[in-house]
Specification:
- It is built from no helices and four strands.
- It has a four-stranded antiparallel beta sheet, with no helix packed on it.
- Strand 1 and strand 2 form a beta hairpin.
């Protein structure tokens, strides 16, 4: 669970992070443009709830995960 931010640690390049709510609606898109390593993503604008985070790289989907904003 997170409050105001979460951290992404990626060994491969990420172009965008997309956060969707449980209905599939995109609530936040974060463009990181070829980022590799650790990045802090702010979630303070999101209401409390459950979300899906999708990371997309140059070759397509790089990974995904669940996020709980408390």
């Amino acid at each position: 669970p997170c409050d105001d931010y979460f951290v992404v640690d990626s060994p491969s390049q990420i172009r965008t992070l997309e956060i969707t709510d449980m209905t599939g609606k995109v609530v936040l898109t974060h463009i990181v443009a070829g980022f590799t390593g650790i990045q802090k993503i702010t979630t303070s604008s999101l209401p409390r709830g459950f979300y899906i985070v999708r990371a997309t790289g140059n070759a397509g989907l790089a990974g995904f995960g669940r996020l709980i904003r408390r």
